[in-house]
Amino acid sequence: MSEVLEIRNLSKKFGEREVLKDISFNVSKGQVICLIGSSGSGKSTLLRCLNLLEKPTTGEIDYRGTSILNPGMNLFQYRSKVGMVFQQFNLFNNLDVLTNCTTGQMNVMKTEKEEAKQRALSFLEEVGMAAYIHARPSQLSGGQKQRVAIARALAMEPDVLLFDEPTSALDPEMVGEVLRVMKQLADSGLTMVVVTHEMQFAREVADHVIFMDQGVIAEEGAPEQIFNNPKEDRTKVFLSRIL
Ligand code: ADP
Ligand code: MG
């Protein structure tokens, strides 16, 4: 199997508080990994470490066999390959939909304007947002904003996309449209690491589920095992609360 990311013995401290402890796992090409766990268990911090929005305190992260923790890393280039979709969309509110999806390509990948536009359009099409290219984020619903954010990330042609609770800020009626796009991406073979409270999505789409509790991987396995036959008491307690 070809490993896209290898995380070894990663820990993260904020001051004296250790919020991630000895985390190790791999992300293989084409794999969908869902990270589940209670609020405060360290899921966002872990994703932020993978994207280098946080620096791990100890441990290693390799991207395609090379450590990303070297001082010489080009962060912007790395983040185009290991993209992130946030709970709060993080769109540029002063730019229209199309420009949101072209600036990164032009600034980071040095793509020519016309090509950047064409690529943006094809991904906006894929997420069902091609009719909104001239809209500002403020004119869109949450579900539409999130689909634009996904198109923007895709336009960078990422190797892996990280999703941090992409549907948690949405009104319930908009959750489905975003999950459908994500399922479509998973089916198309995109490598994804998804922090989610949508257990039905994790059950259906994940190849591998990681349950985090208080900064550690408390249990991991295939979705059928985690959801139908959890071994650890804390997994059982978490699932009984959320399902
Ligand atoms: P989750 O995403 O699972 O809810 P987080 O990764 O956001 O968990 O947070 C894990 C723990 O780390 C929490 O106790 C949180 O308060 C703490 N934490 C997160 N970010 C910071 C920070 N920048 N400074 C200090 N503590 C933080
Ligand atoms: Mg979080």
TrEMBL record:
Family of this protein: Belongs to the ABC transporter superfamily.
Record-given protein name: Amino acid ABC transporter ATP-binding protein
PROSITE patterns assigned: ABC_TRANSPORTER_1, ABC_TRANSPORTER_2
Protein topology in the membrane: Peripheral membrane protein
Keywords carried by this UniProt record: Amino-acid transport, ATP-binding, Cell membrane, Membrane, Nucleotide-binding, Transport
Domain ABC transporter residues, every copy: 5-239
PANTHER family tied to this protein: AMINO ACID IMPORT ATP-BINDING PROTEIN, GLUTAMATE_ASPARTATE IMPORT ATP-BINDING PROTEIN GLTL
Transmembrane stretches, start-end: none
GO terms for cellular component: plasma membrane
Subcellular location: Cell membrane
One GO MF term attached to the UniProt entry: ATP hydrolysis activity
InterPro entries linked: AAA+_ATPase, ABC_ATPase_HisP-typ, ABC_transporter-like_ATP-bd, ABC_transporter-like_CS, MetN_ABC_transporter-like, P-loop_NTPase
Subcellular location, principal: membrane
SUPFAM superfamilies assigned: P-loop containing nucleoside triphosphate hydrolases
A Pfam family that the UniProt record links to this protein: ABC_tran
CDD domains membership: ABC_HisP_GlnQ
Source organism per UniProt: Jeotgalibaca porci
